UniProtKB/TrEMBL annotation:
GO terms for molecular function: metal ion binding; oxoglutarate dehydrogenase (succinyl-transferring) activity; thiamine pyrophosphate binding. Gene3D superfamilies: 3.40.50.12470, 3.40.50.970, Multifunctional 2-oxoglutarate metabolism enzyme, C-terminal domain. Its main location: mitochondrion. Pfam families: E1_dh, OxoGdeHyase_C, Transket_pyr. Keywords: Glycolysis, Magnesium, Metal-binding, Mitochondrion, Oxidoreductase, Thiamine pyrophosphate, Transit peptide. Belongs to the alpha-ketoglutarate dehydrogenase family. It comes from the Eukaryota. This is oxoglutarate dehydrogenase (succinyl-transferring).
């Protein structure tokens, strides 16, 4: 069908008349006396026979394995693993203290920037009170995996420092040129290596490289972080062709993590949205099919989905999610909406108890306020949300004096959707209206993904429920991802918070 004579007839007439490269090269070698025509014929016939024999033998093959087609078959990775057993992701208190001590100190004689001295003092104070902010929770996740022998690799734009200057995983001596110190590479003897490296603004190339790294090594936490989540759009080819569909197309699992800073905080449309809706649209679960909610439900969901899409709100949940990514008995990509303002928000801290003992990743976090203690039948509205908007909703609920009548639940893992935990909340508040609240515009964010799933869950599992549909509170539809105007931004927030606090 691809006939070049249609459009380039004269050129391809000349090409057709021209001897091919093999013939020209053969004539040159014969003229030089390097080979004879007979030697060439013999070699050509031998090669033809190799191809013909292989073609004939292929007809006798009774079956093939997927690994026969893979250049990196992960020898032994899947052996002895129970695909339906959830991994334990907590660690001991001693482990947290050891990592925290290393993360909050530098070697003697190392000349640290004065501003970073304050940062390290702050880490030491958090350690003393057994509290973790976002940077500490991340360090605990990375450090604990390193001490368990798992390589951790993070690349992207400003990742060493962190776009919002919160991470500081590579410290620079202020008096010695090129003298650096990486605390997480100095936790203990025999630990795995932590590789953290800044990259150029070439998302397509760097994400593609990290994807290849993850395909080659399943026993590592491989992450690519965007400077702002919006910037993943220049790597859309890698996301569409490989990350979202690689397992279905080529039977290749990947545990690549995409860290995408996301959140509406008054910045412009190129620095607000990681386009959460695109990733949810490419999730392969069926909104019209409610899976069997049995004991294997959670792991079966994780096994069947093409990737995980999350938007967590606490350092502890971030900690567990990163560890789960490596400790699962299989590999799936993780798309994580990461915070900006929550990095330093005092309310967005976790206790060490949430990372030790029997703690684990929470796909949904139930209401933590008064409604959890009050009579659930008195709750008139159940708000479901994801991400940092939760903290704004809690503040507004307190301001309007509705702590006892409005419950707020956080969906931390959006895809695959936590039907079982949402059902539990629906049954807990039988007389409450259900509303999805998001800071994104109505044609963006999670609304289109959540709406049919909640409605189908209510229809199939809550036959006696009075209020049978989930409603919407959020920004109106928009072509632009954000207002780009501070006053309009604040007006939009005020309006959807008012809608969320309305009892109807």
């Amino acid at each position: 069908m691809d006939e070049p004579m249609f459009t380039q007839p004269l050129m391809y007439k000349k090409i057709k008349e021209h001897k091919n490269v093999l013939q020209l090269y053969l004539e040159k070698l014969i003229s030089e006396g390097t080979v004879t025509q007979a030697e060439y014929d013999e070699e050509s016939q031998r090669y033809d026979k190799v191809c013909e024999d292989a073609f004939t033998n292929a007809k006798s093959v009774k079956g093939v394995r997927n690994r026969d087609w893979l250049d990196s078959p992960w020898d032994g990775f899947f052996e002895g693993r129970d695909a339906m057993k959830a991994p334990a992701t907590s660690v001991t208190l001693d482990r947290l203290n050891k990592i925290g001590q290393v993360f909050s100190t530098v070697p003697q004689g190392f000349k640290l920037h004065p501003g970073l001295k304050r940062t390290l003092r702050g880490r030491a104070e958090l350690l003393e009170h057994e509290q973790a902010d976002w940077a500490m929770g991340e360090a605990f996740a990375f450090g604990s995996l390193l001490t368990e022998g798992y390589h951790v690799r993070l690349s992207g734009q400003d990742v060493e420092r962190g776009t919002f200057s919160h991470r500081h995983h590579v410290l620079h001596d202020q008096e010695k040129d090129l003298a650096t110190y990486v605390p997480l590479n100095n936790i203990e003897q025999g630990q795995a290596t932590y590789t953290v490296c800044n990259s150029s603004l070439s998302e397509y190339a760097v994400m593609g490289f990290e994807l290849g790294y993850s395909l080659n090594d399943p026993n590592a936490l491989i992450m690519w972080e965007a400077q702002f989540g919006d910037f993943n759009n220049t790597a859309q080819c890698i996301i569409d062709q490989f990350v979202s569909s690689g397992q279905q197309k080529w039977v290749r699992q990947s545990g690549l993590v995409l860290l995408l800073p996301h959140g509406y905080e008054g910045m412009g449309p190129e620095h607000s949205s990681a386009r959460l809706e695109r990733f949810l649209q490419m999730s392969n679960d069926d909104p019209d099919h409610i899976p069997v909610l049995d004991e294997d439900f959670m792991m079966q969901q994780l096994h069947d989905i093409n990737w995980f899409v999350c938007n967590v709100t606490t350092p502890a949940n971030y900690f567990h999610l990163m560890r789960r990514q490596v400790l699962l008995p299989f590999r799936k990509p993780l798309v994580l909406m990461t915070p900006k303002s929550l990095l330093r928000l005092p309310e967005a801290r976790s206790s060490f108890a949430e990372m030790t003992g029997d703690s684990s990743f929470q796909r949904l976090i139930p209401d933590q306020g008064p409604p959890a203690k009050a009579d659930p039948k008195e709750v008139v509205k159940l708000l479901l949300c994801t991400g940092k908007v939760y903290y704004e909703l809690v503040k507004e609920r307190e301001r309007t004096g509705q702590d006892d009548t409005i419950a707020i639940c956080r969906v931390e893992q959006i895809s695959p959707f936590p039907y079982d935990l949402v059902l539990k909340e629906l049954n807990k508040y039988p007389f409450a209206r259900v509303q999805w609240v998001q800071e994104e515009h109505k044609n963006m964010g999670s609304w289109f993904y959540v709406q049919p799933r909640v409605n189908n869950l209510i229809r199939s599992h809550c036959p006696d429920r009075t209020h049978r549909h989930v409603s919407y509170a959020g920004r109106p539809p928009s072509a632009s991802a954000a207002a780009g105007n501070k006053q309009l931004h604040l007006m939009e927030i005020a309006q959807f918070l008012k809608d969320a606090m309305s009892p109807v």
